[in-house]
Every structure is written in structure tokens, then in C-alpha cells.
Amino acid sequence: MEAPELLRVWVLAAVALGGSLATLPDHHVLPDHHVSTETGAIFVHELERELFQEAFLAGREDDSAAAPITFQAHLRDHPDLPRWLRYIQRNPHQPGYLYGCPTAAEVGTHAIEVLAYNRGTYETVAQRLVVTVVPAPGKGFTGSPPYQGEFLVGNRDVEELLPAEARETFVEAAAGVWERDDVRVINVTSALDRGGRVPLPIEGLKEGVYVKVGSGGPFSACLASAASPRSRFHCGLGQQPLASCYDTFAPRFAVRWCNLTLLQVWPTPVATGPAWGSGVLEEGGDFQPPTEAPPRDLLPGYLVTLLVPLAVAVLLCLLLGHLMCCRREGVQKRDLETSDIQLVHHTTIHGDTEELRHMATSRDVPRPLSTLPMFNVRTGQRANPMPASPDGARVPLLPP
Ligand SMILES: *[C@@H]1O[C@H](CO)[C@@H](O)[C@H](O)[C@H]1NC(C)=O
Ligand SMILES: *[C@@H]1O[C@H](CO)[C@@H](O)[C@H](O)[C@H]1NC(C)=O
Q1: pTM of the entire structure?
Q2: In terms of residue numbers, what domain contains 163?
Q3: What DSSP character marks residue 129?
């Protein structure tokens, strides 16, 4: 194919593609959903199928059986989710979950665009999820509890531990082992993300979930002994670790005690962000305008600015006028000061000059040749100023 022809094909294809994109129908948009969460704790948002199901069925009579729905979520103006947020949906007949643990670096507002596809009709519904991450109370620190333990739950998939009730149950069980009541879930991670293997498709086999919980108080003796080097040794031999306490997780959660990790996080001071000045409003606060400024008297300033230069200008004018009009030395004064002989002398010269001038204008003889130009100044042409008379007679220099 010739190069220009190839180019034309490309252009046509591009135009066709652009046209088809432009004719894509706008999708139904649900109102924005606002949620807020704290740093250092798990954030879970369930993408409820029912909500989107209603939007799909709106304006249609047949409320047929639940349609398969899948979701797609991304940070607004970005192709993917923010790093701290993950998405999971087991299959199109189950809800989707957005979950993650924001850290101090994620404080702020994150606008997530969620697009739901009806796999039956290929309709789409969009919703914007606005997540506001606020710093956990406990100023100056990352907000994560100082004592953290990570449990591997073998008989669950990750989305089974995301609903609030499941987390509640887990926290209760963990509080029993830890012997503290301020235990909370920090993070939930699928074991597949930590090198676990996809289980065989056998009923009851699950991927496994790592659940990280934290507390402000130290670990109980039971937890400490389960994570001790001796217990590790037993684990290496394929035995259960030595823990003398009652497993409050059983039978709902099959905790793999050999995979228990305990860690102590020293609170690290957060890099101090910009300090808010007094001009920044509290969240939800109303702006209180400052009390009205007292009226200031601007007249003296105005007068000074205007009148002082004016007065100076008037003074200068008067001075100049006086010098010009009253101090002027006239001809009379000059004549009085000049000696008489000088005046006579001057008048004589003056008179003589006048007389000579008068005499010059009344001369009626031709001007002497020597006073006439011998050549044209402009053209430089030399010419006899007096046209030669045909009889060869010459004009005398002086009249006879
Ligand atoms: C939560 O778990 C994920 C996956 O293991 C990890 O990438 C993330 O850093 C964890 N977040 C926190 C705050 O520990
Ligand atoms: C649990 O720990 C054992 C060793 O203690 C390790 O071999 C295994 O891979 C861990 N399981 C998971 C799912 O990480």
C-alpha cells in the first residue's frame, strides 16, 4: 500500500474510533457517597449490589432475578486505586469491597469513582465515593497502636472477614486471648498476597486471611509464649506451639498459631505538616467576619497631602511674579545710569547707520559686477552674470 493511502486509512480509523467513543451513552450516576475514616485502622466500604440493582431496574417493570454485577473502581483522574486501598469481589453475585488501612501520609480526601456493570444487560451505573481520612486522635503519632499482632486465619477468604460483624467477632476472640479490651483491627490481607497458594476447588478450603490487630497494652503471656523461640522450634518440627491458654478463636476461626507474628511499633513522630494558622476554619465551622473597622478620620491626611504642595506652588508663583514685574529694570533706568557721552556716541552711530541704509535703498544705478554672483550656487554653473549685448558693448563698472 502506498504511504499516503496508508495514512488515509489510519485517519479514517481514528475518526471512526473517535465517533464511536463520542456516541457512548452516558451512564446513570448515583449521588455521591461520603465516608470518613481514621488513620491506623481498617477502612472497609461495601459496594452493595442492592443499591446498584435498583438503579439498573429503575424505569423498568420486570424486576427479574438479581443480575450479575461487577465493579470497577479508580481514583478520580487516575487509572487505579490509591496505594492504600484494595478492591475485592469474589463473584458477580456477591458484593464488592474496597478496603485498606490509611496511614498518616494518606490524610485528606480521596475521590473514588466506582462504575458498576450489569453483566446481563451491559448497563453501567457510576457513583462517586468520597473518602475523608482524618488523623487518629493521639496527636503527633502515626495513630497505629504500639502493640500489634498478626493472625493467620486458615478457614476464611479475605472478603469473609471484611464485613463489620465478622470483624467484630474476630476482635472479641482476639481480646479473649490478649486479655485486653482495646483491641482493634488494623489491616486485613489475603494470604495470597503473602505468598499463599490458591486452594484446590474443594468445599471448605479457603485462601486464608492475615488479620492484624493492635492494642495499647502489652501482649498477654499466652500470645508471648505462642510466638516464643521454643514455640517456633516446635513449629519447625511440625508440632503445635506451646500455648497454655484457651483458644478463644475456635471453632469459628482456625488460627494458624505457627504463623503468629507479634511486633512492637515505637511511635514515630509524624513529619510535622504545615501548621494551621488562626485563619483556617475548623471542619464545619462558620466564618465569623472580624468586627467592623472603626471609621477613621481621613480629612487631615487629605488636606496635608493636597494643601502643602498647593501652598508651595502658590508661594513660588508669587515670588516669580514679584521678580518679573516689580523688580524689572527698564530702559529709563539704564539710560540714567549710562554717561551722557556714551549715549551721544551711541546715538551718532545709530543715526549714521540709519542714514546709510536709507541711502542704499534709494540707489538706482546697476549694482557693481563684483557684488553679483558669478556662478549659480545651486547648479554650480558658471555664467556671465550680465548678458553680453550683441554689439559687444560692455556695461561700464561705474556710470560715466
Ligand atoms: C496492610 O496490608 C497491606 C498488604 O499486606 C500492606 O501493603 C499495607 O502496607 C498494610 N498497611 C498497614 C498500615 O499496615
Ligand atoms: C505459615 O508459617 C510457615 C512456617 O512457620 C510457613 O511455611 C507457611 O508458608 C506460612 N503460611 C503462610 C500462608 O504464609
Answers
A1: 0.62
A2: 147-264
A3: E
